[in-house]
Amino acid sequence: MASRTVCRVFQRRFASTAAAQRPSLAEVRSQRNAVFSREQARQRALYPRIEKIEVSMQGPGLDGTLLVMNKGMSTPLSCARHLTEHHVTNSALALVDGEPWPLHQPLTHSCSLTLLTFKDNDPTLVNEAYWRSCAALLGQVLEIAFKDDYTVELLSTPEVPVLSGAFCCDVVLDPQLDSWTPSEESLRSLTRGAQQLIHQDLAWEPLEVAPSVALEAFSHSRCKQEEVEQKASQNPKGTVMLYRCGDHVLLSGGPLVARTGLCSQYEVTALHSLGHGSWGLHRRAQGLSLPLQLQAHHTVWRKLRQRAEKLVDVPGPEVAAPPSPPNSPQLPASH
Question: 45, 147, 159, 207: which has the highest count of C-beta atoms within 10 A?
Answer without folding.
Answer: 207
